[in-house]
Amino acid sequence: MQRALSESNLDWDALVLVGFGKGGGIALNALVNKLLPKPVAGIILFSPIVVFPHRRRMRQPKQGQEDQAKLFTFWGRPADPSTPDSYCNLLAQKLESFQEELQYTPEIIPDGEHVFDKKSIAALTKAISSCI
């Protein structure tokens, strides 16, 4: 990723990570475990799936990464059986507990399903404008 940013003459603060489902879980893991070398402009997740969300802990920020990360989650409701309400609520509670490290914004996509469709693209466009 660093190479692609360098070739485009960009730095990490111009990057918005976006993930769907398990890819969203991977992006969230990179955020909470401080695996990114520098802060990014934002992270936008659609129906992120993580293992054992109640066990997640935020690692201490790396030197120079004390700023809050912008994190958006989008959930399809009420039709997404992949991420039931109990799971969404548990993950949201955990993310809200990281309020010193995150600017967390949970969103609902009405009548959304576990797909990345036109509704998701509209939500993504709105969230990206909040990140840059």
Automatic annotation (TrEMBL):
**What Gene3D superfamilies does the database record attribute to this sequence?**
alpha/beta hydrolase
Q: Which Pfam families does the protein's record reference?
A: Abhydrolase_2
- The transmembrane residues are none
Q: Which domain of life is it from?
A: Eukaryota
Where does the Phospholipase/carboxylesterase/thioesterase domain start and stop, copy by copy?
10-132
InterPro entries xref list:
AB_hydrolase_fold, PLipase/COase/thioEstase
Q: What is this protein called?
A: Phospholipase/carboxylesterase/thioesterase domain-containing protein
Q: From which source organism is this entry? A: Prorocentrum cordatum
Q: What is the lineage of its organism?
A: Eukaryota, Sar, Alveolata, Dinophyceae, Prorocentrales
